[in-house]
TrEMBL record:
The lineage of its organism: Eukaryota, Viridiplantae, Streptophyta, Embryophyta, Tracheophyta. This is NAD-dependent sorbitol dehydrogenase. GO terms for molecular function: L-iditol 2-dehydrogenase (NAD+) activity; zinc ion binding. Pfam families: ADH_N (PF08240), ADH_zinc_N (PF00107). Belongs to the zinc-containing alcohol dehydrogenase family. Residues 35-369 form the Enoyl reductase (ER) domain. Its EC number is 1.1.1.14. It comes from Malus domestica.
Length: 371
């Protein structure tokens, strides 16, 4: 079902599972990426449930920009799809079964899933920077299967119980929101930080919401798309600036940005990741400020030399963000519901239509599956 269709909890129970306690159930199915723009719903055999694992019946799964890159190009930056892969990594669902050592969850609990399984043994993991683990197994990132499926098996400690007033769709939105929260933590956004967000796509918009929740007093968003800028304004941006894709326009556009942020740009989040956007970010940020690289539009970029002691920092995914995401959602400090613009069920036709809708962009911010 397209836009305005089922929300989580409204749909018919079409989920499938494996044999449980001798009861034969319908086969577990998943959306497999087989080639460029070639997705097929096919059987997906789950691994055995380990003592620390849980089996989750997925109810809400969102489409991310990286999923679209895989769908269109069979790669996202250096992550290349070389064999059939179950796609998807933004998800929430209901616990069906728990392993013998899982004590904090029981069947029936509604949970949001953090999609990356780190090794927990390397130096980066021991330092708490597990998002950089070289052995990370991340949903829907080659060669690891993802979560656009009826059910998955996942470590229990990566499943976070949803507050009663947080929906399953909002739980699935914890994954993109985590990117914005991790970026704000890395850039030390606070009540004294004036923020520029370059790019008003889904990640730029959650970065806007996160920056506001961290206390940023003034936030400006720049983008090439009028529809996205209107959405940014409705979500609380103090000002929006229409920009072009022409790098020759940077000086004029930076002047516009600096005019609406009279006290200067303390932190700029580049949520697009192109030569033009990083040039804009470095040019607009005040001396001694920070530029945080969030988007990955290009594999390589040419940067202007920053001679004003601007700190350029990068982020990769996130770490330890789910509890804060859920608290922001529970308290109402962040509302992600307006970002969910399109909803689809889990049929072959709807999976294809959902990915085409997300790939077209425009007014499609977050495309969500209700399973």
């Amino acid at each position: 079902m397209g836009k305005g269709g089922m929300s989580d909890g409204d749909h018919a129970d079409r989920c499938c599972g494996e044999a449980i306690n001798g009861d034969v159930q319908q086969e577990n199915m998943a959306a497999w990426l087989l080639g460029v723009k070639n997705l097929k719903i096919q059987p997906y055999k789950l691994p055995n449930l380990g003592p620390h694992d849980v089996r989750v019946r997925l109810r809400a799964v969102g489409i991310c920009g990286s999923d679209v890159h895989h769908f269109k190009n069979m790669r996202c930056v250096d992550f290349i799809v070389k064999e059939p892969m179950v796609i998807g990594h933004e998800c929430a669902g209901i616990i069906e079964e728990v392993g013998s050592e899982v004590e904090h969850l029981v069947p029936g609990d509604r949970v949001a899933l953090e999609p990356g399984i780190s090794c927990k043994r390397c130096n980066l993991c021991k330092q708490g920077r597990y998002n950089l683990c070289r052995k990370m197994k991340f949903f829907g990132s080659p060669p690891n299967n993802g979560c656009l499926a009826n059910q998955v098996v996942h470590p229990g400690d990566l499943c976070f119980k949803l507050p009663d007033n947080v929906s399953l769709e909002e739980g699935a939105m914890c994954e993109p929101l985590s990117v914005g929260i991790h970026a704000c933590r890395r850039a030390n956004v606070c009540q004294e930080t004036n923020v520029l967000v370059v790019g008003a796509g889904p990640i730029g918009l959650v970065t806007l919401l996160a920056a506001r929740a961290f206390g940023a007093p003034r936030i400006v968003i720049a983008d090439v798309n009028d529809e996205r800028l209107l959405i940014a304004k409705s979500l609380g941006a103090d000002a929006v600036v229409k920009v072009s894709t022409n790098i020759e326009d940077v000086a004029e556009e930076v002047a516009k940005i600096q005019k609406v942020l009279e006290n200067g740009v303390d932190v700029t989040f580049d949520c697009a990741g192109f030569n033009k956007t990083i040039t804009t970010a470095l040019s607009a940020t005040r001396p001694g400020g920070k530029v945080c690289l969030v988007g990955m539009g290009q594999r390589e970029m040419t940067l202007p030399l920053a001679t004003r002691e601007i700190d350029v920092i990068g982020i990769f995914r996130y770490q330890n963000t789910w509890p804060l995401c859920l608290e922001f959602l529970r308290s109402g400090k962040i509302d992600v519901k307006p970002l969910i613009t399109h909803r689809f069920g889990f049929s072959q036709k709807e999976v294809e239509e959902a990915f085409e809708t997300s790939a077209r962009g425009g007014n499609a911010i977050k495309v969500m599956f209700n399973l």
